[in-house]
UniProtKB/TrEMBL annotation:
Organism name: Streptomyces resistomycificus
Broad class of where this protein is predominantly found: cytoplasm
Protein name: Imidazole glycerol phosphate synthase subunit HisH
Gene that this polypeptide is encoded by: hisH
GO molecular function list: glutaminase activity; imidazoleglycerol-phosphate synthase activity; lyase activity
Function: IGPS catalyzes the conversion of PRFAR and glutamine to IGP, AICAR and glutamate. The HisH subunit catalyzes the hydrolysis of glutamine to glutamate and ammonia as part of the synthesis of IGP and AICAR. The resulting ammonia molecule is channeled to the active site of HisF.
Length: 216
């Protein structure tokens, strides 16, 4: 069933890491006009840019830079143009990633480190609930017990970004728990992201993507 959203142009950024076809199909379900590309002009001019990510933090950062994705994301955000990251596409938005003792610089849009999950069972694979802020736009219309699909071994366990200017809306941070609580999603101005895979999360994921598209 196609959800009721005006056709917005959305680019799924193809830098070699991510389930781009799954993301394309999920976004198309919202009624968006979706294209998979790494073309600079198309990525810059789209109403929304989706950055997926699967694999190691360091490899994703390398692929992103080779495709000039780091520059595109920075330029879009500088102009208030919406960007959404998924899974490792969220993780690379933080300052650094630490995997197997190796530290890799991220895009530093948010402070914090992506580190190994602190849980008895890793990876965290399967369905889980989240604790979203009451004023969340991303999770609007979703029940508190809605479940989303996670596949990851690393996460951000601490959130340190604060907004002291009353005129600027503070970031809305959503949490989930696997062993220790971790950041499951962030809404911060034009930059939104999820640790889970909305494109694999059934109707709940479709509603979440529809919420994002509706803000473009």
């Amino acid at each position: 069933m196609e959800l009721s959203t005006a056709a917005k142009k959305v680019v799924v950024f193809d830098y070699g890491f991510g389930n781009v076809r799954s993301a394309e199909r999920a976004l198309a379900r919202t009624g968006a006009d979706v294209e998979i590309t790494r073309d600079y002009d198309r990525a810059m001019n789209a109403d929304g840019l989706l950055v997926p990510g699967v694999g190691a933090f360091a490899a994703c950062m390398k692929g992103l830079k080779e495709a000039r994705g780091d520059w595109i994301i920075d330029r879009r955000l500088s102009g208030g143009r919406p960007v959404m990251g998924i899974c490792v596409g969220m993780q690379i938005l933080f300052a650094r990633g630490i995997e197997h003792g190796e530290e890799t610089e991220g895009l530093d849009e948010w402070p914090g480190s992506v580190e190994p999950l602190q849980a008895d069972i890793v990876p965290h694979m399967g369905w889980n609930t989240v604790d979203a802020p009451t004023d969340s736009e991303l999770f609007a219309g979703l029940d508190a017990d809605a479940r989303f699909y996670f596949v990851h071994s690393y996460a951000v366990h601490d959130w340190s970004l604060e907004t002291h200017n009353a005129a600027i809306r503070a970031p809305r941070v959503t949490w989930s728990t696997h062993g220790k609580p971790f950041v499951a999603a962030v809404e911060n101005g034009a930059l939104w992201a999820t640790q889970f895979h909305p494109e694999k999360s059934g109707d709940a994921g479709a509603q979440l993507l529809n919420n994002w598209i509706g803000t473009l």
